[in-house]
Amino acid sequence: MEKETILVVDDEEDILELVKYNLAREGYDIETALTGEETLKRVKTMPIHLIVLDLMLPGIDGLEVTRQLKKNPETQRIPIVMLTAKGEEADVVTGLELGADDYIIKPFSPRILVARIKTVLRRISQPTPDEADVIHIHELMIHPGRREVCADGQPINLTYTEFQVLHYLAKRPGWVATRYQIVDAVRGSDYPVTDRSVDVQIVGLRKKLGSYGKHIETVRGVGYRLKEAT
User: Which of 12, 55, 96, 195 has its CA 20 to 30 A from that of 62?
Assistant: First the structure.
């Protein structure tokens, strides 16, 4: 099997070497970059399977790198694991909203970092859903294989996490999902996401869905559900 290539981006040489050493031990091919500008150039010149990305970079910071990668059709599917000292809830929420696949706060355990990276790579390597998995409900079409959502035939641009939340609720219409169940389903049970970040995703979903957002109901004191179609 071809080795997966991971791009590690950090302007601190000691962190860069620590991450590089531990991932290389697991058999990954490692590329490194010190700046956001270098990162954006590197993904255009070679196949990258995952990016470990610091946020506080000189010049273009990690959030802007993520924003540019996720809006480019050629790079938007590259998973991003943010590795940063910015650990406030608002920072985590922002990273998730931009489409990060995981968010790890410094100081960190190299073993946990490796485990989380393996989880992300394993998740994206799962077989692509086929047409039978497309969900039609409330004039919404949710296509997990293409990661597309259309409302009454009009495409809706969702972030990675917003799509995951909507797809999870749509698979179980009428069922109430707690915030923790949503986090577990979308990111995995060890993901450091708060109740508040789930609420943020729901607010964003409702806004983007427009009049169809009313079908996502809040069940006070419990969580959320997508109404069953009548």
Answer: 195
